[in-house]
Amino acid sequence: MNQIPIYSPPAREIPTVIAKPIPVTDHKVEYLPSLTALRGIAALLVAVFHFEMAVARFVPAETTMFFEKSYLMVDLFFIMSGFIMMHVYSNHFKNKIQAGSLKSFLVARFARVYPLHLFSLLLLVVIVRWVTDWGNPPIIFEQPADILPNIFLLHSFGFTNIYSWNIPSWSISAEWAAYLLFPVIALFINKKKTVAVVLLVILVVVAYYAIMYLLPRVNPINPAIPVPHNLNTTFDYGYIRGIAGFTAGVLIYLLYELRAVRKAFSSDMASLLSIFAIIVSMHFSLNDGLTVFLFAILVLSFTANKGKIASFCNRKFLQFLGNISYSVYLMQIFLQEPFSHGAYLPGTVGIGRGKQNIDFSIGVLYCIVYLILLILISYITYQWVERPSRKFINRMWGK
C-alpha cells in the first residue's frame, strides 16, 4: 500500500452481554449496518488499487484518477473506526479510566486486529523464506530486518525504510496507536466537551496539513523524485495519519449524537450527494484533505440514513463483504506476491511496481478474477482464523 488501511473494526462487533465485575459494555448499542457495507466496498476498492499498483494498471490516470486515489480508502477506514469506537465505548471512560474497563477495551481491540495480522505476516514470511529463499536477494519490500517492527506493530512509526511485508498492514500499526489514545480522548470529551472538540479539531487539521506540506517525506524507492502534497504516507508518518482520521471519526460521532444533525443527513439525497462529491474529488485528484472531509460527511450521512441507501446497505451480500473486509484487506498480499517476484500477466506492457499497464477490457477480466479469488480466500481466513482467534482471546482475557 499505499496504499488501505487502514482498516476499521466491524460495527457488528458490539458487545451487549454484561461481564462482571467490569462490563465490556453496560448498555445495548445500536448496530450500524450501513458502515459494515461501506467498509466492504472500501476494502474492495483498496484491493483494486493494489491490483493496479502490483499487478497491472488497466485504467490510465489520464482517464480518471479515481483508482489512483483509492489509497484514501484507508482514511475512510480510520474515520469509521473512530466513529464506531465512540458509538460503542465512549461511556466506558465517562468519569475516569478504570483498569478493568481499559483492559476489556484493549483486549477486545487486540483480539480484533492482531491475530489475522500475525497470521498473514508469518505465513508471508514462511512463503518468502522457503519458496523464494528470501528472494535471492531479498526484494526491498521483504527485508528480514523489517519482520520484528511488523510483529510489534511499529511499522507506521518510521522504524522501516519502506512499506514492508504485508504492505497494507502499516495501517494496523496506526490503528493500534489510535486505540491506545482513545480512552484519553473519550475521557477528555466526557469531562470537557467544548474544549476537547476545539483542540481535537485543531489537532486533525494540523496533522493533515503537516503530512501534506510540512513533514520531511521522501520517496522510499527513488529519493530524487519529489513527494506530492498528498496523504499517502505509510511506513514513516502513517501513525499521524491514522490518529488524525480516527479523531475525525470521533468528532463526526459527536455530530451524529445531535438529533437535528441526524435528521438533516437522513435523506437519500444527502448520501448520494456525498458519494457524488467524493467521486468528483477523486476523479479530478482534488486535495486529499477535501476528500477526507467528504468521507466524514459520507459516514455521517450513511449512519443517519433512513431511506433506500440504508435498505441497500442491509443486503446480505454487502453485509457479508463488510464482515470479511478485514480479511480482504490483509489477504490481498498473497495474490500480489507472485508479481512482486517477477511474474507478469499476459498482455502486460512495462516493468516495475505501478508501471505495468494492460488493455482495459482484459484488465477488467483479470481484476474480476482477482477479486473473486480474494473474496474466497478472505472467507476462509475469516471463518478459520479471524473469528475463532477473536472469540478465544476475548473468552480467555477479555473479562
Features:
399 residues; 15 helices; disordered N terminus
Could you please describe the fold and organization of this structure?
This protein has 399 residues and is mainly α. The protein has one domain (33-397). Helices cover 62% and strands 0% of the residues. The chain has helices at 33-55, 73-89, 99-132, 147-151, 170-191, 193-214, 238-256, 259-264, 268-283, 288-304, 308-313, 316-323, 325-331, 333-340, 360-397. α2 packs across α7. The model is unreliable at 1-27 (pLDDT under 50).
Number of domains: 1
End-to-end gap = 36 Å
> Could you name the ranges where pLDDT drops below 50 across 5 or more consecutive residues?
1-27
The total strand number stands at 0
Q: Element order, helices and strands? A: HHHHHHHHHHHHHHH
Largest sheet entry: none
Mean pLDDT rating? 89
What is the topological layout?
Layout: H1 33-55, H2 73-89, H3 99-132, H4 147-151, H5 170-191, H6 193-214, H7 238-256, H8 259-264, H9 268-283, H10 288-304, H11 308-313, H12 316-323, H13 325-331, H14 333-340, H15 360-397
Question: What can be said about this structure in brief?
Answer:
Helix content is 62%, strand content 0%. The protein has 399 residues and is mainly alpha-helical.
